[in-house]
Prior knowledge:
Chain A is of the alpha/beta class.
Amino acid sequence: MRIILDAMGSDNHPQPEIQAAVQAAKEFRCEILLVGDENQLADKLAQANPQNAAVRIVHAPEVFEMTTKLSGSMLRKVQNSMGVCMDLLKSGEGDVVVTAGNTGGAMAIGLARLGRLKGVKRPALSALFPVRGGHCVVLDLGANTDCRPEYLVQFAQMGSVYARQMLKIDRPRVGLVSNGEEAGKGNDLVKATYPLLQATGLNFIGNIEGKELFGGEADVAVADGFTGNVLLKASEAVAKFMTDILKEELMATARTKVGALLAKPAFDTLKRTLDPDEVGGVPLLGINGLVFVGHGRSDARALVNGMRWAKQAVEGDLLGALRAVMEGK
Amino acid sequence: MRIILDAMGSDNHPQPEIQAAVQAAKEFRCEILLVGDENQLADKLAQANPQNAAVRIVHAPEVFEMTTKLSGSMLRKVQNSMGVCMDLLKSGEGDVVVTAGNTGGAMAIGLARLGRLKGVKRPALSALFPVRGGHCVVLDLGANTDCRPEYLVQFAQMGSVYARQMLKIDRPRVGLVSNGEEAGKGNDLVKATYPLLQATGLNFIGNIEGKELFGGEADVAVADGFTGNVLLKASEAVAKFMTDILKEELMATARTKVGALLAKPAFDTLKRTLDPDEVGGVPLLGINGLVFVGHGRSDARALVNGMRWAKQAVEGDLLGALRAVMEGK
């Protein structure tokens, strides 16, 4: 097993990546290919790796900001760290890519370099939302803002494979995000998708709203990328809004400060429940290779968690399972 | 001023409505028309109203569950409490309707009985979301699941009038809900709506995500009814999810229980911030009459708050202001 780690992905790169690579090499007993500007990496890695854990630098000659718009041919050629990561994956020198770089960029470069899995119409971004009793795979989160019903059906299929392989859920319950749980509710897209999902043989439980999603009633929640993205961003924003108010109010008086101190274990549980870094990495589902993208603000711990998750995906043959289901769809 | 209160709207009707009517009549010094089944209301009202505050029962001969599907002609004729409320408003016997009944039903019956304001293509449902530093008017919340760009422009116009008249914001900042704050982000609908909003003369601040919405950066947030509804339900569900975890964890040990007790003022502030009953009532924007719909689970306090808000809408001539802006649009 070799994990390919983008050394230039996170907001504070490359220090978190260097630390994470060394730690993961030790902990997982596998080789880490650390991809980035060798001049920036060599000395720092030597310092951080006195025991010589199996971390190897692969030089990426270009430094490219993901804010730059890349055209089609550039996406295939660019030799920044993300591009080199994808090439290493394609040539089989590594088994999985982990990056904390720009998600849209990873999708674009990954798609250009690795292509789609056979049968897949549109790759999707998915994340694990923390919900009652566990997690829910939500997709698409923004790779496809305008969708056709058949794309949503494929998201449901890929999300179900992901839930089965990675969350070990036998027959994942699939919900269709809508503006009402009753059948017949929805916009034109949802109404057209509903009967198609019923015909798939997936464990389709019907329309779901926020209540069912966060209540843990579905293992997979399907939406077009626009809706999924709005849902994701709103959920994160509400959580932050509530946490901010609570923090401020708890610090407001001596009494509440003492209360906060005593109640700390409860707040810690809440924080851990909502922490996206506990499970690091959003898979690019539907491209012909295993790529996981973490938050830009990932620290070393988040990156190690991301690599642990990526390693599980390799061991559980997530890609093979996706290929088996999607081929010919 | 006469407020028309649907006596049969809330989940626990008619007791909360009777209490609220008596309290509002006293507090606001205006007459309340309490609309419902006289047989169910007369004795209870007499008991609840020993001082004879100005509450008058208006009999609604039919009892109709809002779950029943109503056809076009039924919507115009039905003599359940909601239908009678709308007729009283139309004939000028009252100035504003307040109901805790089904929102979709109120919209359908209101539209059938009162019609649209001149120039309005599609009426919308809006709510005040609690955000940093105040509230944001979010619309549409589900009256129009599939929208054209020009509908969203009208939502922005109506939402701006609502924010100006009711929240006393001089030039309300209007945001377009999208999957990214940058211009150019969005699905086809958002991309088509963006330049139209720029051309309105409204205080359009561009695309917004959950972060900007809950960060209080917009006074009005515009979305199609499907997206707005998903946003609303997800926000409520995340708030409930977090509150539930926190409650359970705070009750988990003796230490956290004491902490919770001491920190109570902070939790109370959070609860008050998120409480939809503080401002009771969602206006049906764009129909030719003032109608406010509250939560089905409204208690007497929520209903009184709803009537207070409705009274302000009458006094501030919300309907006249909407008419002035929308005529000829």
